[in-house]
Amino acid sequence: MTIVAVAHRHISVRLIIYAVADSFGVTVQDMRARRRDGKVYHARAAACLLARELTGRTYPQIGRVLAGRDHTTIIHAVERAREMLASDDDFKLAYTAAKMAVETIAATKLAELLRDDEPSVVAARICEYPSQANRVSTWEIISMAARLVALEELAADAFKLLADLDLLVEQPASALELRGPLTSRITSVAESLASLGYANQPEGAPNV
């Protein structure tokens, strides 16, 4: 069995972030931060493309590991990385080195330590075994916190959507005027659900 065949079963987005950070000469903290200087920007794009190619993770799942970035940001990063692979030799060299490192590490026990744990899985594990809560890593705590914030924002958007729908029922004469805000609310809720892994990303604006 080749390294690549083994690697695809064990590669995580987290492992890719570490490998890319090393190959591009940046830190893991840089990769997750909001900085947009050239080197970090390119490294983050490389990580997104590798994650799509090697892990089978969705855009929202990749975004969650990269400090809660939304799916559209990941899509743009993947497109940018593909463009740079075709036009930037330095980027291609660093990208290839990172990919080789990922495939090599994925065949070792280190890959297990760098697995991607979904925040909900970590939370369920803590609920089942409270005595092991002290074994939760900082990375996992950050992921759970980011997901909690996203769920709070989703709840607020859903509440506003319900309020708008009630208004539509109460004021049918204003349906045309309310159509735009309702469409926006529905799209926002659908995108939030998609980013959290609960629904498919809508292809277009819904009919209201």
Largest sheet: none
Task: Compute the number of strand runs.
Answer: 0
Specify the overall morphology: flat
Query: Rounded to an integer, what's the Rg over CA atoms?
Result: 20 Å
Order of helices and strands: HHHHHHHHHHH
Spatial separation of the terminal alpha carbons: 53 Å
Question: Can you summarize this structure?
Answer:
The protein has 208 residues and is an all-alpha fold. The chain is built from 11 helices and no strands. Helix content is 73%, strand content 0%.
Question: Can you characterise this structure?
Answer:
The chain is mainly α and 208 residues long. The protein has helices at 3-10, 13-24, 28-32, 38-54, 59-65, 71-87, 89-105, 110-113, 119-128, 138-170, 175-195. Helix 2 (13-24) crosses helix 7 (89-105).
